[in-house]
Fold this sequence. Notes:
The structure holds two protein chains of two kinds.
Chain A: H1 2-31, E1 32-33, E2 37-38, H2 41-48, H3 52-83, H4 89-101, H5 104-122, H6 127-134, H7 141-164, H8 168-177, H9 182-190, H10 195-211, H11 214-218, H12 224-234, H13 236-270
Antiparallel strand pairs in A: 1-2
Helix pairs in contact in A: 1-13, 2-13, 3-7, 3-10, 3-12, 4-7, 7-10, 8-9, 10-13, 12-13
Chain B: H1 3-6, E1 15-24, E2 27-37, E3 42-46, H2 53-61, E4 68-73, E5 76-77, E6 88-91, H3 103-113, H4 118-131, H5 147-159, E7 165-169, H6 177-194, E8 197-202, H7 205-211, E9 214-219, E10 222-227, H8 229-234, H9 239-244, E11 249-256, E12 259-262, E13 265-270, E14 277-283, E15 289-292, E16 298-305, E17 309-316, E18 321-327, H10 328-331, E19 339-343, E20 349-353
Parallel strand pairs in B: 3-8, 3-9, 6-7, 7-8, 13-20
Antiparallel strand pairs in B: 1-2, 1-4, 4-5, 9-10, 11-12, 11-14, 12-13, 14-20, 15-19, 16-17, 16-19, 17-18
Helix pairs in contact in B: 3-4, 3-5, 4-5
Amino acid sequence: xxxxxxxxxxxxxxxxxxxxxxxxxxxxxxxxxxxxxxxxxxxxxxxxxxxxxxxxxxxxxxxxxxxxxxxxxxxxxxxxxxxxxxxxxxxxxxxxxxxxxxxxxxxxxxxxxxxxxxxxxxxxxxxxxxxxxxxxxxxxxxxxxxxxxxxxxxxxxxxxxxxxxxxxxxxxxxxxxxxxxxxxxxxxxxxxxxxxxxxxxxxxxxxxxxxxxxxxxxxxxxxxxxxxxxxxxxxxxxxxxxxxxxxxxxxxxxxxxxxxxxxxxxxxxxxx
Amino acid sequence: xxxxxxxxxxxxxxxxxxxxxxxxxxxxxxxxxxxxxxxxxxxxxxxxxxxxxxxxxxxxxxxxxxxxxxxxxxxxxxxxxxxxxxxxxxxxxxxxxxxxxxxxxxxxxxxxxxxxxxxxxxxxxxxxxxxxxxxxxxxxxxxxxxxxxxxxxxxxxxxxxxxxxxxxxxxxxxxxxxxxxxxxxxxxxxxxxxxxxxxxxxxxxxxxxxxxxxxxxxxxxxxxxxxxxxxxxxxxxxxxxxxxxxxxxxxxxxxxxxxxxxxxxxxxxxxxxxxxxxxxxxxxxxxxxxxxxxxxxxxxxxxxxxxxxxxxxxxxxxxxxxxxxxxxxxxxxxxxxxxxxxxxxxxxxxxxxxxx
Lengths: 272, 356
């Protein structure tokens, strides 16, 4: 037992070394200016820097929209797979895993081609307006669409694991024999038991969108990750400060989501 | 406990299955099932797996639809009525409680669906939990309850809407033996108290015989026999029922008109008989008499102590094996290898064609 513990500590120490040292080094680099001692100047400059707030807001909006769309798409799909056609499951699984195989660079090249090709062919039709609208720089819907596709593998896996833990068919039948129609059975008996899976899927999507660079950058938008890169090019210390800040920000958001999920669970449990 | 609020409608419902037919691909689950459940009775659907008993129950619940035929409750055709408007409470095999709700909220779920006010719904759910002996466990979540307790909660939940029919889909099969016995008695007690028409699916014949008013034995999508337990056991209508319910010996004999010669005796044939020639005579172990006899043509093979009785397996000279249940005090002398003679009581016997 003691030996095992020793090994555990060794593994933990190694992992800590690998993860924590670079982070600590980053933090030190941002606050310790040679000749001036410890200063938070770099962080102060971020908050007043051009584009910090808009790019962060854009990223958060994109993340929220992506989470909503991908869950609306995948929750009914995965539940239907469990209830109606389990034989289609491998097909959906493969389709949802495709984005892992296609590199983002190939993906964005395809999107860019379509976006360029579209206006040439549809310039005289109402569809042209659609092409303009989805590329609106204030809220690029095209990025949401791209992120939904990129989030599919993670969301599918999270939901599938959640559904595996509950017997969807029996829960639905039990609810129906208690007088609930099919939609009410799904909302009242199945969905609440997927809370953990929904939360997991949201976590993963949020982290994905906040950190996504390739697609956004190549399509010419400036969400948070792209902005960090742009700033980093000019000011080394500030770019590291921004990275550290974004790291803590992501943690804070994930923590907030977890707390929120946990609280509504106890709230629903105490409700009569 | 206020029984008046819990009792179901004063008149219990009649359930009728009329020539139900259902095929899944090439497998026929129900092949023209006709069956009537009388008001207030507990009817057990018994049969081997794949005989269609669960399909029949799920059709009554509304989870399956027949290819042809109809399901009637009190003479009213409900074949096209969706499951949630059927007024049938159901208890599933296992794990059917809603994991995110406490026991009390599970029982109150149906009432919530019917838009019953919060206060009334809590009161009624509490009464129902009292009824199944779990009044103090209302705040527990399913994962904090034992398997038996979960099934009690499921039973309370099924009764919450005062259903006209109670459906039990092998509710005891996931429980261990002791809990199974006590819950069996409890279900029966509740069912009698409420006088609710109940259909109980099981593959355990002992369960069916001990709980049910009548037992319907099914085989390959058809009804073999529906009768009271004593009749089913004592006068099985077919060879299949005879062998499925309880233990049955097949002893080779020769049929000749209305009599069959077996073990050197001539006995009248009971019920339908196959054509003349070599047949099997079906005899219960407790009807077989075994006595120590140096001249006998049987040898004791093995003995198994069952408590009050001992089951003796006798091997005859022609290779046939006969099981006999003897009072333990009589079986003491019959050690393995002892020579014995076997005889049957002078009563009509069931005869079945010999499987080739």
